[in-house]
Amino acid sequence: MSDDYRFLVVGAGALGGIIGARAINAGVPVWLATRTAESAAVLRSSGLQVSGIGGTAYAAEIQVAAVREYERAEKFRLILLATKAHDALEIAPFLVTLLAPDGVLLPIQNGSVSQLLADRLGESVVLGGLSNLGATIIEPGIYEQRNAGHLIIGELSGGLSDRAAKVAGVLGKAIEVRVADNLRGAIWAKLILNCSVTTVGAVAGQTMRQYMMSATGREVFRRAYDEALSTALTIGIQPQRMIVDPVPPGWRGTTVVSEEYNRWVDRVMAGYGDIKPSMLQDFERGRRTEIDFINGYVAELGPKAGVPVAMNAAITDLVHSIEQGKSKPDPGRLDELLKRTRSECPAP
Fold it and tell me: What is the pTM (predicted TM-score) of this model?
């Protein structure tokens, strides 16, 4: 990998800022793109500063501009797309024009973004990715890394490739990168957990450990998880193991509640139980969520595959209601979800 491998990070939020700062510290030639010229000016003044797990990193001088200003710049061989999902879909066609002939666009958003972009732009341009990095932005240019996470990248069609290895070689100088030969399985493994752990906690206004203390919370979690897993398996995707085997013990199309299953839940809780859901933070900041790419994606695919997805559809509708100010996060929202879906969801 040559030293002139031009690399652009689009989005200077928590993930983009941490990756950019660590790449600069590692000597990787990296540029950053923001939505506006004003945001770029703030970062040029502040630099990038990272603390937390993985050690500190500071980049006083950074090459940053509004994304549209790169239209006149030299082409890039790698563009890492670290925006919110909706923004990723909007800006990606423009980013393709910034790529060198052998360039790669690498989206790392949750849910369906990588597949949607590959469908629209072609897998010859899009390399699939997702992030397990826990990160937060303190203020523009100042970030905290919350875990020893990593990026997972790979071909959406499966298998290993030279270009995935090359991209891993570049990014691996800054952060841990793992190349998956079943990238879609890895994406779905995280998607299934997001559909259950993250969004259930968001609508309840609680962590997983808190909402799983109630029978209602456990049932909503189980049903959201079962529907997402059934959808994946029905459309021919085998989710990859992450912190647990994605198929719960004794699973027969739906969860079989048992001591073994409860131990499986405890392992999930050990990894995610005390994390404040990122979607809940979106609610608190008045930001648009990525629900359409998570539970909404399952709610869209399920009926096409003949899989009942009433809970995921109900969660999607509820999140939209909270976004619009018609409702708000509260543990009582879980009772509402059960009342709405009880006749449509199988019992354990």
Answer: 0.89
